[in-house]
Amino acid sequence: MVIRVGIVGGTGYTGVELLRILAVHPEVSVSCITSRSEAGMPVADMYPNLRGHYDLAFSEPDVAVLGDCDLVFFATPHGVAMRMVPELMSAGVRVVDLSADFRLKDLDVWANWYGMAHESPEWAEKAVYGLPEVVRDEIRTAQLVANPGCYPTAVQLGFLPLLEQGLVDPKRLIADAKSGASGAGRQGKIGMLHGEIGESFKAYGASGHRHLPEIRQGLCGAAGGDVGVTFVPHLIPMIRGIEATLYAELKNPADFDRLQALFEQRFDDEPFVDVMPFGSHPETRSVRGANQCRMALHRQEQSNVVIVSSVIDNLVKGAAGQAVQNMNIMFGLKETMGLEAPALLP
Amino acid sequence: MVIRVGIVGGTGYTGVELLRILAVHPEVSVSCITSRSEAGMPVADMYPNLRGHYDLAFSEPDVAVLGDCDLVFFATPHGVAMRMVPELMSAGVRVVDLSADFRLKDLDVWANWYGMAHESPEWAEKAVYGLPEVVRDEIRTAQLVANPGCYPTAVQLGFLPLLEQGLVDPKRLIADAKSGASGAGRQGKIGMLHGEIGESFKAYGASGHRHLPEIRQGLCGAAGGDVGVTFVPHLIPMIRGIEATLYAELKNPADFDRLQALFEQRFDDEPFVDVMPFGSHPETRSVRGANQCRMALHRQEQSNVVIVSSVIDNLVKGAAGQAVQNMNIMFGLKETMGLEAPALLP
Amino acid sequence: MVIRVGIVGGTGYTGVELLRILAVHPEVSVSCITSRSEAGMPVADMYPNLRGHYDLAFSEPDVAVLGDCDLVFFATPHGVAMRMVPELMSAGVRVVDLSADFRLKDLDVWANWYGMAHESPEWAEKAVYGLPEVVRDEIRTAQLVANPGCYPTAVQLGFLPLLEQGLVDPKRLIADAKSGASGAGRQGKIGMLHGEIGESFKAYGASGHRHLPEIRQGLCGAAGGDVGVTFVPHLIPMIRGIEATLYAELKNPADFDRLQALFEQRFDDEPFVDVMPFGSHPETRSVRGANQCRMALHRQEQSNVVIVSSVIDNLVKGAAGQAVQNMNIMFGLKETMGLEAPALLP
Amino acid sequence: MVIRVGIVGGTGYTGVELLRILAVHPEVSVSCITSRSEAGMPVADMYPNLRGHYDLAFSEPDVAVLGDCDLVFFATPHGVAMRMVPELMSAGVRVVDLSADFRLKDLDVWANWYGMAHESPEWAEKAVYGLPEVVRDEIRTAQLVANPGCYPTAVQLGFLPLLEQGLVDPKRLIADAKSGASGAGRQGKIGMLHGEIGESFKAYGASGHRHLPEIRQGLCGAAGGDVGVTFVPHLIPMIRGIEATLYAELKNPADFDRLQALFEQRFDDEPFVDVMPFGSHPETRSVRGANQCRMALHRQEQSNVVIVSSVIDNLVKGAAGQAVQNMNIMFGLKETMGLEAPALLP
C-alpha cells in the first residue's frame, strides 16, 4: 500500500519537517504540497536539504487535487484548516491537522484564544485529539485527527501517570516549559531574529499562552475532573527542542517509592516514550530529529513535590513526527514506520 | 583614595570578570592576582580582552603580599578561602569571598553539601552574607563578606517582597532557574564542551543542588521562619545569564492588585534592581555584562499563583559585579562606581 | 564641554550601540534620537538594557531640532543621510554618517551598488572617509565624516602595512571575511531568523557585495595604485564579531622576517589596533563590545603567502565605536574617551 | 547478507555517529564496540539518543573478538590503528580507519605531523585513500581503507574538477575552511568549552595544520603534479558542519563559461555530491546529519578567480557517513544504503 499524501501549507518548519520524515517513509507518496505565497517554487529550492529527494513544487491549494489524496496534513496557521476540512471530509479524505483548529472541544475557549469564531463546530466535535499514548484506538478509525501542540505533548505525557492514578493534588500543577526558536514558525518577525534571541533567554506568554487551555483540557481528561495548572513557556537560544519541568504535590509522600515503577509501566508499550532511570536529566539533544519523549523523575529531600523533566523535539514528537505516527495508526501501518532513526547527537 | 586589591584564583571566569570590571574602576589598583597553575603567565596572555589594560602576571598566592592589600577577592573553588581567610583577617585585610565558603551559617549543612569539614567556623559566623539589598548596613563595616551565589541572588531578590510581607504560602515556593554555561566555571569537563551543551537544554541537579541550602537560608531570613522551596537549575546553551521563574501561592488573591506597587517600593532606592512593568518579560541579554537584576510579575487567569521572572548576569550581579558593589559599600564609595555601563545588547 | 548629540535612525543595532557607548561618555549629552516608525516610544522600552540610562523617546526626524546639535550621527539605511546632510551642513552641524552614503568617491560605482542616483555629490566629494588610522588629521577638521563599513574596517587595517610598503602583489589580494548576524541589521527578514541561521554557516554575496568597492577604494589608496581584491563574506551563527583572513603574496619572501616589526611599528601609536605576537589567533570575543581591532600574522612552510587574521566587533570598531572615536577626534577630545572598557569575555 | 561490524574507540563523536547511522542500516549488525576507558558502560548510557537502539556495552579492545568481524571501523586517535591493523589484516578482516594513520603515503611527512614513527609502513602503502569520488574501484577490493579527513574531503571535492582539467594555476590555491566544534572531538579541553568558543570565531592552525599534507597529497593526485596550497581552518561556534571557500586563478578567463557544466558533469553520477546552480550559497545546515557535499561556483566582476563554496557535515561525509559509504562499496551493497535520509533542517 502506498498512501497518497497531500500537505497544505508546506513552507513553514512543520511542513519541511513532514517532508524530511516522509522522504524515507516506505509507504508514502507525497502527491502535492501547497503554498499560496510560493506556488510554483520547487520545494528543494526553498529547502536545499530536500534536493534530490523531491521533484515537487509548491502549488496553489486546490480541494479537487487534495480530494484525491488518501490523507492530507494541514501545516497551516490557525483558521485555515477549519475552513477547508469540511469539504475534504465530505470527499472521504482523512486529515491530520497540525494546527490548533480542532484541538479544543470548548469552542468558546477556542474563540477567545484564537480571536475568531470557529467555523466548523461539527468537525471540532468529531475530531480526535491525537495523542496516541491516550487515545490510540480512537485514532485508528478517526477521519479527522487534531495533532497536539508541542508544549501540550511534553506537558501532558509527563503529568499523565500522576493524574491518572490520582496521586497528586490536581489543583497545584506547575509546568515550566522551555522551547527552541523553531516553535515560533518561519515568519519574518523581528523578535525571532538571531540578533534578538541568540545568547539570551526569557519567559514569554507568562500571563497566558494559547497552549494553556489545550494543556488544561488534556490534564482534566487524565485527572477525571478539574485541574489547576500554571504554565509558563520560555524561549531558548537554540532551534529545536522542548524541555518541560513539571511540579506536582504528592498527596501521600510514601507514594514516592512506587513512582518510577508506575511511570515505567504506564509507558512500557509505548514506542515513543522513554522513562529514564530515576534522577536522570533528559537532554533535548537526545531527541533531536526523533519522534521521542524522554522523561525522568526527581525528588528533593524533605519535599513532597514530584519533579518530572520531559523532553521532546517540538518539530517531531511535538508536530510532524507525531502526525506521521498518527497517520501510521490511522492506516494500520507499523506505528514506528519511518520514525525509527535515532536522534542526531551531537 | 585608591584601594589596593588582590585577587586569589584569577584564572576562572569570575576572575577575569573582576579584572574586566576593575579595569575601569577609578578608585582601584589591582596589585596582585594569584594562580598556582598559571604563575608567571601574564593575565593578558590568558585573556586577550585585557591586552593593554593590565601588565600583571599571575603569581603564587602569598599571604605576605596579599596582606599588603586593602581588599582581597577570593575567586577560588570552595575550600580555599576558609583556609586563607583567618590569616588575612589577622592582618587586618578585608575580604570579599566569591566562593561558597562563608555563605552558610549552619556548618553541618555546609559540610554535607561541600563534602568537607569547615575549617574556619569562627569566621563563618562573623561573615556577612553580602546581598546589599538586604543587609547593606552590615556590609559597610564587615571585614569579611560572603558574596552570594548566582542562583541565590536571582531567586532571593525575586521572592523577597513576597516573603517579607508574608503574602504567600512560604511552604510552597518553586524556583525554576536557568543558567548559561559560564556558571560552571572554566575547567576542562567533557560535560561542558560546546559539542555537549550547544543546541541542547536540560535540567541538572534536580534532585538537589548546592545553592538550595543557600537559597533556603536567605528565604527563611526574609520570611522570618521556615520555608519550603523546590529549586531546579537548568543549563542554557549560551554563555552568560540566569533567568529564574518563581512561583508562589498568594494567601489572599486580592493582594494581586498591590503587588506591582509593593515590588516597586521595595526596590525603589536600589540602583541595581529594576522592577519592570507588570506583565513584562525580562531578557537575560538586557543585563549582559551589567550589575543588574531585572524582574517582572505575572498572573494567569483564575489563579492565585504569583509568577516572578528575574534575570541577572551570573558573572556580574551573580558574582564579580556584586563583589565590586560590596567593595564600594565597604569602602564608602558611591555604590555604583565602576558599575555604570549599560548591558551589552544585542 | 558637553557635546549635544543627535542620532537619526536609532532603532537599529547601530543606534542602540551608539546609545550604549554614549551612556558613559563623560562629554556627551544625547539630545534627540529619531525614528519615524517608533516616534513616541521611549528608547528604554525598545532596548531594556538602557532602562535607567535614558529618559528619551524616539521622535520624528526634525532638521530644526537636529540643527541645534553639535553633532549628528546617522544610523540609517542608505539613501537617508544624503538627503538630510546638506541642510545640516548649512546649519553648521557636524555629521558622522554610519551609513554608506558618503563612503565612495566614485558616484557611478555608488549608484550601481546602491541602486539609486546620489543626491548630494557635493558633500560626497567633501566627506572624509573616517578611518582614523589613515586620515586622522583630516578628521579633526571635517564637517562630514563617512564612517567606514564593518568589513572594510577589518580588511583595510589588516592589509594596510603590506600595501603601504609595497611588499605584496597588489593584484592578488584575497579577503575571506566572516560576520555575526548583527551586521545584517534589525529588520524582520526570514533569512535572518534564529531558525534560519542558527547552527549553520554559509558564504553570501560571494559574487559581489557592496563592501567590495569600498574595500577596493581604500586599498587603492594604501597601495597608491590599482589593486585586485577578491572579497567573500560569510555569516557566522553568532551576534557580534567579524574575522577577516587575508591572503597576499609577498614579492620577496625574505621580507617575512620583518613583517611583524613592520606591523607593530605601523600601529604602535594606535590606541585601537593591537598587533598580537606572530602566529597568534585573534578571537572575535576578545573585542566584543570594545573599539578594538586585533590582528596577527601567519606563514605556512614553503609558502610566500602572508596570512593576516584581523578581528573587530562589527558594531563597535566596525560602526558605533569608530563613530565615537571619530567624534572624539573631531571635537579635540581624548581619542579613547568613552571607549576604554575592555571587551566582554567570556 | 548481514555484515558483522566492530568499532574500535567508540566513545567519541565519530563513534556515536557511526552507531547512529548503522542503527538503521539494513545489512549491518554491530557486534562489538570498544573503549578502554568506558569498558562495561552501556553505549546508550553515554549516548541517550541510542536508548532503545543498542543493548551493547563498551568492551575492552580484543583482537580475537574483532577478528571475528567482517569489518572493523577505527574511530580512534592517531597511533592506535597502525598498531592493531596488521593483526586484523592477517585475520582477513577488512578495515575502514577513520583516523589519520593510513592517509599519507609519505611516512616522513606523517611522522613529522603526528610526532611519532609509523609502525605499519607495509599497510600504509597498501591502504586505499577512501575518497569514493576519486578511487571507487580500488575501494571495492581494498582490505584497508583510510577514510579521508573532514577538511580534506570538503577541500578536495571542490578543487577536483579544476585541477583534473588543468584549468587553474596549481601553485596558487587557497582554501579558507571553517568547522563546527565537533571536529575537535570529545575530550575535556578547556579551549573547547562552550564558555570559550560560544559566540566567538577565530582561525586556528593558521601556520600549519595536520590536514594540510593530506590536502596537498590529494590535490597533487588530481593535478598530476605539484601544487601550492594555503589552508587556514577556523572554528565556528556551532557543532556540525564545514564550509570551505576555495580560491583558484583561472588560466584562461574564457573558461568561466564552461565551469558550471564541467562541475555538473564531473559529479553527475555521484550520489553524495550536489553541484548547486551557479551563484548559490550552500549552507552547512543543508547537509546536517547527511552524507552530502554541496558546492557552488562564484565569480566576481573583472576577476579571474574561481570561487568554490563547499559544505559537508564533518561527522558524516567528513567521517562516519563516508566510512559507511566506503563499507557499502567494499561489500557490494548499494552505495547509498543507510545513507538516504535528508539533512536535518532547520
TrEMBL record, chains A, B, C, D:
GO molecular function, one term: N-acetyl-gamma-glutamyl-phosphate reductase activity
Pathway listed: Amino-acid biosynthesis; L-arginine biosynthesis; N(2)-acetyl-L-ornithine from L-glutamate: step 3/4
Gene Ontology biological process terms, A to Z: L-arginine biosynthetic process
TM stretches of this protein: none
Enzyme category, top tier: oxidoreductase
Chief location: cytoplasm
Enzymatic reactions: N-acetyl-L-glutamate 5-semialdehyde + phosphate + NADP(+) = N-acetyl-L-glutamyl 5-phosphate + NADPH + H(+)
SMART domains the record matches: Semialdhyde_dh
Cellular component GO terms held in the UniProt record: cytoplasm
Domain Semialdehyde dehydrogenase NAD-binding: from-to ranges: 4-142
Subcellular location per the Swiss-Prot or TrEMBL entry: Cytoplasm
This enzyme's EC code(s): 1.2.1.38
Active site per the UniProt annotation: C150
Listed InterPro entries: AGPR (IPR050085), AGPR_AS (IPR023013), AGPR_dimerisation_dom (IPR058924), AGPR_type-1 (IPR000706), NAD(P)-bd_dom_sf (IPR036291), Semialdehyde_DH_NAD-bd (IPR000534)
The entry's keywords: Amino-acid biosynthesis, Arginine biosynthesis, Cytoplasm, NADP, Oxidoreductase
Family: Belongs to the NAGSA dehydrogenase family. Type 1 subfamily.
HAMAP family noted in UniProt: ArgC_type1 (MF_00150)
UniProt cross-references to PANTHER family, sorted A to Z: N-ACETYL-GAMMA-GLUTAMYL-PHOSPHATE REDUCTASE, CHLOROPLASTIC-RELATED (PTHR32338:SF10), N-ACETYL-GAMMA-GLUTAMYL-PHOSPHATE REDUCTASE, CHLOROPLASTIC-RELATED-RELATED (PTHR32338)
Role description: Catalyzes the NADPH-dependent reduction of N-acetyl-5-glutamyl phosphate to yield N-acetyl-L-glutamate 5-semialdehyde.
Protein name in the entry: N-acetyl-gamma-glutamyl-phosphate reductase
Organism: Marinobacter manganoxydans MnI7-9
